[in-house]
Amino acid sequence: MHRVTLDQILEWNPQITNPDLIYPGQRIRVAPPEMEGEFEPFPGADFFQPSVSSPVIEAMGYRLIDEGCGVYAHGPDSRWSEADQKSYANWQWKLGFRGQDADGIPGRKSWNRLRVPAVYE
């Protein structure tokens, strides 16, 4: 249905330690293959607040892990957190940003370079 392999699902969901055990209600990431132009647009810096919960934040977290910048204890989720901010700051540093430009709050330039896959709900 989503055109992904079991290996991709396991890669995108490090919390799954046994692929034979997936529980009812367990949230797993299933992303369609990335195609040109299928990325989340920058939602604006005000979007990244502790009160915000969105699958876009979770998708961003998995991209940060893919880039070697994630500092999540149990993987990202849909609520903006301190781990998201620290992980994003790592991404900003990786891109060469410093000072206030590497505060962990996404900006348009760093967001566009992260290429967060479009979230299908």
From TrEMBL:
Residues 1-30 form the LysM domain. Pfam families: LysM (PF01476). Coiled coil: none annotated. InterPro entries: LysM (IPR018392), LysM_dom_sf (IPR036779), PG_bind_dom_phiBT1-type (IPR047763). PROSITE patterns: LYSM. This is LysM domain-containing protein. It comes from Streptomyces afghaniensis 772.
